[in-house]
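Page 37, continued from 36.
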């Protein structure tokens, strides 16, 4: 990459007096105000509904109180973090800065900070925590399925466990790549100093963290019986734990919408001179396509959940047949969000694979424009396929051919992306570093997910596989085999830049091989279990399926051990401070590797000017004008 520079002034954040830093809002204040807001909302809810304040274990359900408690708790939590400071200061006529805690050491990671790099690392740690919780739930599920009949937990607790696992994974991992990696690197990749809306960027993270803890609290209110989809009429009939689900996904939807809006504004309006659309890194294109889906699909989820909450609290009948509503309407509204959601998870993984392959093959990305058209095509067509989830749910039979066709058509732009990956690998002398291994694993896993998707996208075969372990296997190959493997590829590739640490190579390769083998040993047999008739979300099964279930459970435990190896590697690298010895260990030509670590607050002393393609491997590397700002952070 060859760049020249355009000089611009660099505004410096104003320092804050010591006394303000000591008494200023922080995470502890946020927790205190959050708990206070929770009990205030609980009290108001009981007064509104005419019930006593004290909650008794055997008292009747009070959804109004719990929903208001969550809402007031989140508002108090955000105020405690300092999100009200700026608007209040402006209303009072006081000078207020957009820059929050950008030069305050380790403490900036535990509160509101408007440095996009800090927010990226916050996302990485926060999502990692809830990914671990979701993984523990998966281990508990497979422990139950070691037996033909319920032994570990009862059927009711089992379905709640399944619902928590699926909801946690689907909700938190919507931002699994855009949260840590797009927030951190997109401004750098486009030559900008920050995101377009820094406070909104920070808000998206803290909304997601509040949502995660709210979902976890569902265990105190009886859980929910719907799985991750929240279907009516079970939604309306469920105990108070269902309210945790509603608020969780509503906050996730709000976070997604704001994150997508911020990404769109940043990429469209803040690109450096010379960075035309045809020079935009392919990872940034994948973020752009994902952001479009977030902005268009997430509001549908939030609106649907608001209607469900009103049905549960003030006796509206949006989805209640007895009052003139329709539970089938809920399914349509949910999946109008739910299927674009699948591509919100998958598209960033496409971008990571195509971004990393040129680095490790030392070749230009094959079919750059074809890959872009594939991503934009997937983004567009994802809104035309949602009713293939409803083939066995009362859909008009005359509509089935259209949704079968649209589902098959979406495989064309997806195939473009796959072809671009294959073309880049063709005749390449690849370096099999750990990030590259995870990218190659994506190729295999996503191929299996795509081929198995043919069976669940066509109405005749879906009639026999819908709701079975076959569908679950397909889904995990598509999402976990795609998103999670690329998530780890990004961790091993970019975390050395983000933190300065290098993972132990042997432990990293052990993590990869154990994860790859155990993943396939876990989910490949589920295709057979599904074809043999084992349904999802049921803890009891026929005796002839016992041996295969035991195999799957043991493989899942090994998969869990592979994640523990990653944690051990992370802790080992942190303790022994394996600082990256090389400035650019992967010999990448991408701009983020041309600036030193630690990356300064303002990224660049001068805005770079781009005048070459992003993947010109084979051309000698010359970089000029990407000098960092003098502030070290």
């Amino acid at each position: 990459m060859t760049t020249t520079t355009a000089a611009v002034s660099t505004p410096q954040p104003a320092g804050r007096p010591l006394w303000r830093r000591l008494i200023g809002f922080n995470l502890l204040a946020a927790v205190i105000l959050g708990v206070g807001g929770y009990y205030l909302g609980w009290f108001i809810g009981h007064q509104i509904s005419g019930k006593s304040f004290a909650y008794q274990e055997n008292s009747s359900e009070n959804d109004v109180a719990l929903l208001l408690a969550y809402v007031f708790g989140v508002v108090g939590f955000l105020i405690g973090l300092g999100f009200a400071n700026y608007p209040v200061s402006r209303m009072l006529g006081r000078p207020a800065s957009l820059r929050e805690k950008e030069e305050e050491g380790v403490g900036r990671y535990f509160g509101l900070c408007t440095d996009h790099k800090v927010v990226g690392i916050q996302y990485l740690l926060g999502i990692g925590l809830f990914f671990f919780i979701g993984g523990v739930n998966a281990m508990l599920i497979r422990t139950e399925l070691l037996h033909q009949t319920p032994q570990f937990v009862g059927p009711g607790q089992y379905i709640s466990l399944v619902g928590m696992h699926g909801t946690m994974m689907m909700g938190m991992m919507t931002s699994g790549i855009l949260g840590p990696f797009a927030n951190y690197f997109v401004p750098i990749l486009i030559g900008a100093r920050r995101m377009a809306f820094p406070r909104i960027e920070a808000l998206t993270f803290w909304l997601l963290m509040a949502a995660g803890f709210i979902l976890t609290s569902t265990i105190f209110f009886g859980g929910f019986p719907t799985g991750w989809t929240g279907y009516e009429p079970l939604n309306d009939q469920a105990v108070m734990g269902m309210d945790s689900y509603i608020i969780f996904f509503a906050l996730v939807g709000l976070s997604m919408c704001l994150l997508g809006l911020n990404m769109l504004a940043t990429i469209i309006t803040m690109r450096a001179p010379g960075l035309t659309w045809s020079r935009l890194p392919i990872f940034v294109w994948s973020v752009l396509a994902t952001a479009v889906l977030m902005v268009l699909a997430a509001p549908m989820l939030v609106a649907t959940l608001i209607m469900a909450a009103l049905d549960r609290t003030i006796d509206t009948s949006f989805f209640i047949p007895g009052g003139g509503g329709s539970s089938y309407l809920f399914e349509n509204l949910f999946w109008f969000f739910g299927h674009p959601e699948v591509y919100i998870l998958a598209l960033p993984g496409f971008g990571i694979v195509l971004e990393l392959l040129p680095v490790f093959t030392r070749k230009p990305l094959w079919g750059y424009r074809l890959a872009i058209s594939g991503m934009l095509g997937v983004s567009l067509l994802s809104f035309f396929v949602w009713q293939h989830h409803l083939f066995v749910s009362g859909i008009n039979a005359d509509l089935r051919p259209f949704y079968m066709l649209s589902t098959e058509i979406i495989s064309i732009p997806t195939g473009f992306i796959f072809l671009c990956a294959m073309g880049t690998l063709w005749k390449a002398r690849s370096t099999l570093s750990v990030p590259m291994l995870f990218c190659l694993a994506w190729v295999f896993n996503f191929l299996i997910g795509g081929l198995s998707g043919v069976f669940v996208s066509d109405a005749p075969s879906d009639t026999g596989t819908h709701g079975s372990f076959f569908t679950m296997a397909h889904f995990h190959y598509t999402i976990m085999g795609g998103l999670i493997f690329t998530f780890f590829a990004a961790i091993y590739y970019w975390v050395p830049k983000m933190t300065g640490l290098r993972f132990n190579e042997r432990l990293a390769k052990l993590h990869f091989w154990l994860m790859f083998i155990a993943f396939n040993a876990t989910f490949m047999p589920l295709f057979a279990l599904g074809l043999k008739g084992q349904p999802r979300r049921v803890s009891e099964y026929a005796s002839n399926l016992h041996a295969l279930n035991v195999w799957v459970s043991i493989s899942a435990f090994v998969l869990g051990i592979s994640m523990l190896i990653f944690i051990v590697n992370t802790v080992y690298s942190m303790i022994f401070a394996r600082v990256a010895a090389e400035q650019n260990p992967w010999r990448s030509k991408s701009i983020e590797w041309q600036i030193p670590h630690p990356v300064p607050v303002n990224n660049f002393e001068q805005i770079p000017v781009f005048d070459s393609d992003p993947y010109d491997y084979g051309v000698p590397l010359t970089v000029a004008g990407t000098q960092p700002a003098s502030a070290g952070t």
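Residues 83 and 112 are 7 Å apart (CA to CA). Flag for discussion at group meeting. The radius of gyration is 25 Å.
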